[in-house]
Design goal:
The complex is a heterodimer of chains A (632) and B (264). Chain A has 632 residues and is α/β, with parallel strands linked by helices. Chain A has 15 helices and 28 strands. In chain A, the strands form six sheets. Chain A has a six-stranded mixed β-sheet with strand order 2-3-1-4-5-6, sandwiched between helices. In chain A, strands 7-8-13-11-10-14 form a six-stranded antiparallel beta barrel. Chain A has a six-stranded antiparallel β-barrel with strand order 15-21-18-17-22-23. In chain A, α6 links the parallel β5 and β6. The longest helix of chain A has 20 residues. The radius of gyration of chain A is 32 Å and the shape is elongated. Chain B has seven helices and eight strands. In chain B, the strands form two sheets. Chain B has a six-stranded mixed β-sheet with strand order 3-2-1-4-6-5, with helices on both faces. A two-stranded antiparallel ribbon of chain B has the order 7-8. In chain B, α1 packs across α2. The two termini of chain B are 31 Å apart. Classes of the chains: A alpha/beta (632), B alpha/beta (264). Chains A and B meet through α2, β2, α4, β7 and β8 of A and α1, α2 and α6 of B. The site of magnesium ion has 5 residues of chain A, from α1.
């Protein structure tokens, strides 16, 4: 009955992935063995091999040995780990995923079930829905497996009784309804004897519904996710040549060359210039499921974990998530503990703010608890210090779910049920005992980061020091972070490679940010030649940040050459010298440009002092809630 | 997206995850159809480049066509090829059945390589549909210091969140083709025009369906002399893929023992 692939219409070529779940010993592995055999899908020799394995263990023919490949599994008669096998019906190809039913191996069940399009929930007709039947059903729901058919197995053990079937059906149907799963069909079978698996059974004359195979074929193919809002989590950034390619997989939606993308949580936008590919015609559109690479029209600082969307349909940005989670680790989850949260490609440190309630899987009641133990399901509030770009699972399951890691291991999975949105320009990162407002009021001014950029010799250090002196004399809290100075201490381990230069700037920006939060006016004097690095500094500095271009043309700078550096660069003694052998990318939208070619030093300082005073002044001296960095 | 696009896209995602998360990577290249597809997917993922060494575990027992193919491809694709000589059969576990013992040479070669080069991640082109213990594998499959696969306690792996963090000294096998079938491999090779060792095509009524060392692998009956014929053959065959591999069929647990001690 194996149907050649060539006879299957192209639209039906896509495999349907079906997971078989249920309580241990209810006959999942047996059912699969039987299904494969009765559809002539087993390779030659397999049945003889299984007969031999059964004989050696003194058992009658054991169908579960087809799937239970490990010695330990055959010897103990249980499935330890999930496995997958391919087979085809007339209608389409399938991947059948066997999942272990034993509580001990729930992480393996989750592993198997998470990739399924649909599920068969196997229930022993004699035993009815037991604990794991219920837990599995609930997990299917959390894992996002929406189509479920129920298989009532071992009908031979209950004399193929219609009454018994009706009782078991009613019980499981009520349960599934309550957890929000609509059972497709409920099918009575005997896996061991093959009744109603592939062929209709004389033993079940009262049953008018489908056989198991017909139930499989009735599952609908998974709906395309192209029409949902675009989510492209960035996986990596590659520079194979002069291109700078952002790589990632489109989780939902579609994009097209020319679209303007918004990147969360960094709140930047840029246009798609190209979709890159190797050994393939270049495309101008891409859709959900595709692993792609794109280039942008601007060198904005995007890295792994950032999420691209369309400007009009952005993810939520949040520090506080309410999640429904399932716990897989033997160490329980408790309030106050910290974990690594992974959501698509992003990672965040989170702490458990509180455990709202733990679910009782049997009767679906919930109760408060001070811990979540292995295999339990609970509602929990997680708090992240960094901003998380996230969707609600109900809207976009793929970007509304994630895992928690403890050390090296995945210890639980969750779906996001609620996320407190945050305005990116108004965050409260750390709760200090002294508020920013109090600091500003005490100092009489706000903190700020005044980022001076310009060529060597343009006058950055000179006017920075002039500014520091003047502001100090006026009673301001002010400090200059000079490029040469930090390189001797904080950044003494860094050289001048592009990576080290970028790291130099990142550290200075982070340090400046801390100073500014402490209430100070920080002035940095670094060449900082690339737009990308400065964009990053701006992200770090947030609302404290002001970019000041200390502009003087190369000729002027070179004629000043206070340290003799240009001369040495010209004769090749200093490689990659900005302006001579390395580019300087002038700011496009600096908050202030000071032309030191045209101004005298004290004029330039005066201009900068005026700017600094205006930026950091308290407009309402009594409440001090209006400044550049306030509330950050 | 076609089904082949979907397979490709998933593999590219896996390759990129590994490349981002794991520092010292290498790819095991058996020069067979699967690892050729794997190399091709690497080039897709990294825009034409193969950004890590490609290792052949050499027992000196491959067929001449295989060596020839290796040298031509390594040159054409600009591969950083590492040829690792495997220790002799006399050093293998004497309790293993003969063909399994011969295959174990590769396990030992791999262990020596890992020890010397300190690789943290090894790409291997195995598929679930090849063999029942491979069907139980994770995409990212952690290994103990001695290479042992603890198949009774594998990590949770769901929603494409893979195990990419490890204790010092351990490593991970990465299986980007785990979800492909033999038929997928051939359909994709055809679509992409991926070069293939000619031993896969029937001559005088026989062809290699699975390519291994000449002492423990045998050609099977077939008249499929080109890719299209192979695809048609696979659509109806019920002979298992590894029927020509002696070691799979020596005892019930031979392959499991081989794999749990570190075989691919
Ligand atoms: N009588 C009877 N026994 C069955 C049937 N299906 C499975 N079994 C037996 O139930 C036991 C557990 O089956 P198995 O497939 O390992 O269960 P699993 O844990 O759900 O995978 C085995 O001994 C099977 O032979 C059935 O339809 N009728
Ligand atoms: Mg089982």
């Amino acid at each position: 009955m194996t149907t050649p692939v060539s006879e299957i219409p192209a639209s039906m070529r896509r495999q349907a992935r079906i997971v078989i779940v249920g309580h241990v010993d209810h006959g999942k592995s047996t059912l699969i063995g039987r299904l494969l055999n009765d559809t002539q899908s087993l390779p030659d020799g397999k049945v003889e091999a299984v007969r031999e394995m059964s004989r050696r263990r003194g058992m009658p023919f054991e169908w579960s040995f087809v799937m239970d490949a490990l010695q330990a599994e055959r010897d103990q008669g249980i499935t330890i780990d999930t496995t997958q096998i391919h087979f085809r019906t007339k209608q389409r190809p399938y991947v059948i995923i066997d999942a272990p039913g034993h509580t001990e191996f729930l992480k393996n069940m989750v592993t198997g079930a998470s990739s399924a399009d649909a599920a068969l929930l196997v229930i022993d007709a004699g035993e009815g829905a037991l604990e794991q039947s219920r837990r599995h059903a609930y997990l299917l729901h959390l894992l996002g497996v929406k189509q479920v058919a129920v298989i009532v197995n071992k009908m031979d053990m209950v004399e193929f009784s219609q009454d018994r079937f009706d009782d078991v059906s009613a019980e499981i149907r009520a349960y599934l309804n309550e957890i929000g799963v609509a059972p497709g069909v409920i099918v009575p079978i005997s896996a061991r004897h093959g009744d109603n698996v592939v062929t209709r059974s004389e033993n079940l004359p009262w049953f008018k519904g489908p056989t198991l195979v017909e139930a499989l074929d009735a599952f609908k193919p998974v709906a395309s996710e192209d029409e949902l809002p675009l989510r492209l989590p960035i996986q990596d950034v590659y520079k194979p040549d002069e291109r700078r390619i952002l790589a990632g997989r489109i989780e939902t939606g579609r994009l097209r060359v020319g679209d303007t993308l918004h990147f969360s949580p960094i709140n930047r936008t840029a246009k798609i210039v190209s979709i890159e590919a190797w050994n393939r015609e270049t495309a101008i559109t891409a859709t959900a499921g595709q692993s792609i690479g794109i280039t942008l029209d601007q060198r904005i600082f995007v890295e792994r974990g950032h999420v691209a969307s369309l400007v009009s349909q952005r993810p939520i940005e949040s520090h506080r998530l309410t999640v429904r989670l399932f716990w897989l680790a033997s160490n329980p989850l408790t309030a106050g503990k910290t974990y690594t949260l992974k959501l698509a490609t992003a990672e965040h440190r989170v702490s458990v703010e509180k455990i709202i309630e733990v679910l009782n899987i049997d009767d679906l009641t919930a109760g408060s608890a001070d811990k979540v133990s292995r295999n339990e399901i609970a509602d929990v509030v997680l708090h992240s210090r960094s901003l998380v770009a996230v969707d609600l699972a109900i809207d976009l399951p793929r970007t509304g779910r994630g895992v928690l890691l403890d050390g090296n291991d995945v210890v639980g999975g969750f779906v996001v049920t609620q996320a407190d949105a945050v305005d990116a320009r108004n965050l409260q990162r750390v709760e200090h005992a002294v508020t920013p407002t109090e600091r500003s009021r005490a100092n009489g001014h706000h903190g700020a980061v005044l980022w001076l950029t310009g060529l060597s010799g343009a006058g950055k250090s000179t006017i920075a020091m002039g500014l520091e002196r003047t502001l100090f004399e006026r009673g301001r809290q002010v400090y200059v972070l000079d490029g040469d100075g930090v390189r001797q201490g904080l950044n003494g381990d860094l050289g001048f490679s592009p990576e080290d230069r970028a790291e130099n700037i990142r550290r200075v920006a982070e340090t400046a940010r801390l100073f500014a939060e402490a209430g100070m006016i920080v002035v940095t004097a670094l060449i900082s030649p690339t737009r990308e690095d400065r964009a990053r500094a701006r992200e770090i500095g947030g609302a404290f940040f002001r970019e000041i271009h200390v502009a003087a043309d190369l000729e002027t700078c070179e004629s000043r050459d206070p340290k003799g550096l240009y001369r040495r660069a010209r004769v090749g003694e200093i490689p990659d010298f900005t302006g001579v052998s390395a580019p300087y990318e002038a700011p496009e939208a600096a908050e202030l440009v000071i032309d030191t070619g045209a101004l005298a030093i004290d004029e330039a300082v005066a201009e900068l002092v005026a700017f600094a005073e205006a930026t950091t002044a308290l407009k309402h001296p009594r409440d001090a809630t209006d400044g550049p960095g306030d509330g950050i | 997206m076609t089904d082949l696009d979907q397979l490709e896209s998933q593999s590219v995602y896996i390759l990129r995850e590994a490349f981002n998360k794991i520092d010292r990577l290498a790819l095991l290249w058996s020069i067979g159809k699967d690892s050729n597809v794997l190399l091709w997917l690497v080039r897709k993922a990294f825009f034409g480049k193969v950004p890590f060494p490609v290792v052949q575990l050499d027992t000196g027992m491959e067929l001449p066509e295989v060596y020839e193919f290796r040298d031509v491809t390594a040159r054409d694709w600009d591969l950083d090829l590492v040829i690792e000589q495997c220790p002799p059969e006399s050093e293998m576990d004497p309790t293993l059945p003969p063909a399994t013992r011969a295959a174990a040479r590769k396990t030992e070669g791999l262990k020596a390589l890992l020890k010397r080069e300190q690789y943290q991640g090894i790409f291997v082109g195995i598929r679930r549909d090849e063999q029942a213990t491979r069907a139980k594998e994770r995409v990212f499959s952690p290994r103990a210091l001695d290479g042992v696969w603890d198949f009774k306690d594998q990590p949770a792996e769901f929603w494409d969140h893979y195990k990419t963090r490890f204790a010092e000294g351990t490593h991970v096998r990465i299986h980007p083709l785990l979800h492909w079938t033999e038929l997928d491999i051939w359909r994709y090779s055809k679509r992409e025009g991926i070069p293939i060792v000619p031993l896969y095509f029937a001559r005088d009524g026989k062809r290699y369906r699975s390519l291994g060392e000449k002492n423990i692998t045998f050609p099977v009956d077939s008249s499929a002399a080109n890719i299209d014929e192979i695809i048609s053959e696979l659509e109806i065959t019920r002979t298992p893929e590894r029927a020509g591999r002696s070691m799979d069929n020596e005892t019930e647990d031979a392959f499991e023992r081989l794999r749990s001690s570190g075989y691919m």
